[in-house]
Amino acid sequence: MTRVTVRPGDIDSAAIDRAVGVLHGGGLVAFPTETVYGLGANAADGAAVARVFQAKGRPPSHPLIVHLAGAEQLGDWVAHVPAHARLLAERFWPGPLTLVLRRGGRVSLETTGGLETVAVRVPAHPVALALLSAFGGGIAAPSANRFGSVSPTTAGHVRAELDGAVDVVLDGGPCSVGVESTIVDATGEALSILRPGGVTREDLEAALGRPLAVPATSHIRVPGQHPSHYAPRARVVLVEPDKVIAEAERAQGSGHQVGVLLPPAFADAEVKAHAVVELPASMPAYARELYAFLRELDQRGCDLIVASPPAERGLGAAIANRLRRAAGPRPAM
Ligand code: TXA
Ligand code: MG
Fold it and tell me: Measured in angstroms, how far is the CA atom of residue 142 from the centroid of ligand 2?
């Protein structure tokens, strides 16, 4: 895959102007971030935000992240910024960290799904930042995919899934992080990770100088936490790393078209399967390509994907989380 790097000088300002016009008119703009592509609407415009839910096929009770050009805009969107949240914002923004805080007056009810809290982040992508600065307000944006499916990491993925439902697609090249932002509940004293992502637990704890709390798992309150999210069409089966090849060959032998995410330790092995992806050894590279690999195995006609979640350290925690969700039970279609 070729990597396109967008520098500030390369930004198509006519396209940004068009996108800003669309946002002011209540329309939808897909835009690149460092994590995944977002499907954006004016966060202060409830009717526009409702169109996002419609385009994604997402239940309206599931809240969106408000994207801002910088932490100095926080005051418009949140009621209060506790000191620990301010510290994390200063350390990790722009970047793949989302903070859940008490909501302020400007955010539409549609954006927060009726919650008293709001999720906010400042993305680290020159095109996203150019769009946010030119627009001036908050952009509510979920990942630009149909509800439950794999997030898009290129403009091509967005067009393949949402063509016709989006007014403008801004192309900023492939996303550099490749998995969604880490969501931290910063409403109370005990900070906790609601969704692992591009900023690691280790880096958050180093910045805070204390461990994060373990979140209560008894109540599912966000869609990214449901089983079967981030899922390709093919069914996903997870096994121990040293069982990947045997499980893939067994399933292929029983009539499946098997796609394999092959751990790097087995890179030279012959695997009797329909399609094999040799995983990169580095976690940043794996995270960057994960969703493209899943899409590719779907495209190559696989009906079953065999993989092994990496150790839950660093970015491995986000990758393992997405693979587990992809392997989760599916709702009946
Ligand atoms: O990297 C990302 O976060 C990407 C890019 C586009 O910024 N966005 C993204 O959005 O992944 P989405 O909608 O696919 O996932 C947002 C998650 C959902 O699980 C949602 O429920 C949760 O954020 N969320 C939003 N507001 C929340 C709130 N007030 N409290 C708890 N969770 C919230
Ligand atoms: Mg999503």
Answer: 6
